[in-house]
Each structure stands twice: as structure tokens, then as C-alpha cells.
Amino acid sequence: NEGRLQFAVVNRNLRIESVKFVGEGTSLVLSGRIPLEDTPQLDLNLNGSINLRVLDGVDRKLSAGGVAVLNIRASGSTRDPLVIGRASLKDATLDYAELPARFSALQGDIVFSRDLVRFENIRGNAASGTLQLSGILEHRNAALHSLSISISARNARLPYPKDFRSVVNADLFL
């Protein structure tokens, strides 16, 4: 945290005046109110930028980098929060050990609204080619309900079949 933590408990709500998280490539400000009982008084805001290397701890096979600029609000109850906002990718990288390609120079927006997560014009590089992704994930209480995703790859070089280098132009709809 940078500076003093400023919070108070008022009328059975934890009121966060300002908490600022600062680190290499990260500067996030959290503020708002969290009810200490199950009432629909949740009101949290998270704004700033985060170094995507924090995702490295999620899975040993995952390596991430770059920055996401966040503008996210959570409201409603703590049991069923309504999360709305945007995460804008800035020169993000993603490398997962079980995938044949590393994704780099990723730009675009991830938009959160009620039960939807929208990928808006996410583009970047993959396997020496280009990649574009857009679509929607629908969820119910964070469990995937349906998806509609479009992925386009152009001039991507993949090691398939074994001992060959194939150049791929593909459109995938899920």
C-alpha cells in the first residue's frame, strides 16, 4: 500500500476511503463500501493499472505480462455482486505451456456487465502471425453458462504435423 490505509466501520458497513496498491507496473485504488451483513449495500470501485505478471501465480503453466487498465465497480450484495466495468489490455503477453503458441502485443477491451463478459476487438500476435478475438461469455454466479467467441488467425506458424512448420489462416467460431 502507498500511504495510510483509510477505512471505517459505520452502520454495519466497512467504508474504504482510499487504499492504494503500488508495485512494479501496478497502481490501483480501491474505495467504497462493503456491508458486514448480507444486505444489498455493496459499493466498491477499483481503478488504475495492474501488471499482468500477477497472473503467473494462478497456474504454474501460465506466464503473463503487460498491463491492464481497470475501471471496475461492484454493487449489490456480497453473495451475488453485480460487477460492471472494463479492463483494457496494453501490450499484454500470455504464454500457456500446453498451447503451441505464445500470444503477444495484445490490445483490446474486456467489458464486464451483469452476467456477461465481452471481448471487444482484442488483437495481437501469435506464432509469428496475427490474432483477433471477440465475443461474449455468459455466466451465472461466475459459472460459465454459454459462450460465443470468434477467433481469427492470419499467417500463424504452428509446429503441426510433427517436424513440419505449417502456416495457418483460420477462423474459429465457438
Description:
By secondary structure, the chain is an all-beta fold. Helices cover 0% and strands 72% of the residues. The protein has an eleven-stranded antiparallel β-sheet with strand order 1-2-3-4-5-6-7-8-9-10-11, with no helix packed on it. A hairpin with a 2-residue loop joins strand 1 and strand 2 (13-23). It is elongated, with a radius of gyration of 19 Å.
Give a summary of the structure in a few sentences.
By secondary structure, the protein is mostly beta strands.
Short key terms for the protein model shown above:
174 residues, mainly beta, 11-stranded antiparallel sheet, 11 strands, elongated
Secondary-structure map with pairings?
Layout: E1 6-10, E2 13-23, E3 26-35, E4 42-51, E5 62-76, E6 81-96, E7 103-113, E8 116-126, E9 129-140, E10 143-158, E11 166-173
Antiparallel strand pairs: 1-2, 2-3, 3-4, 4-5, 5-6, 6-7, 7-8, 8-9, 9-10, 10-11
What share of the residues does DSSP label as strand, in percent?
A: over 45%
Gross morphology is elongated
Strand line-up of the largest beta sheet: 1-2-3-4-5-6-7-8-9-10-11
Which series of helices and strands comes N to C? EEEEEEEEEEE
Roughly how many Å apart are the termini?
Answer: 41 Å
Describe the largest sheet: 11 strands, antiparallel
List the total number of helices. Answer: 0
Average of per-residue pLDDT values: 91
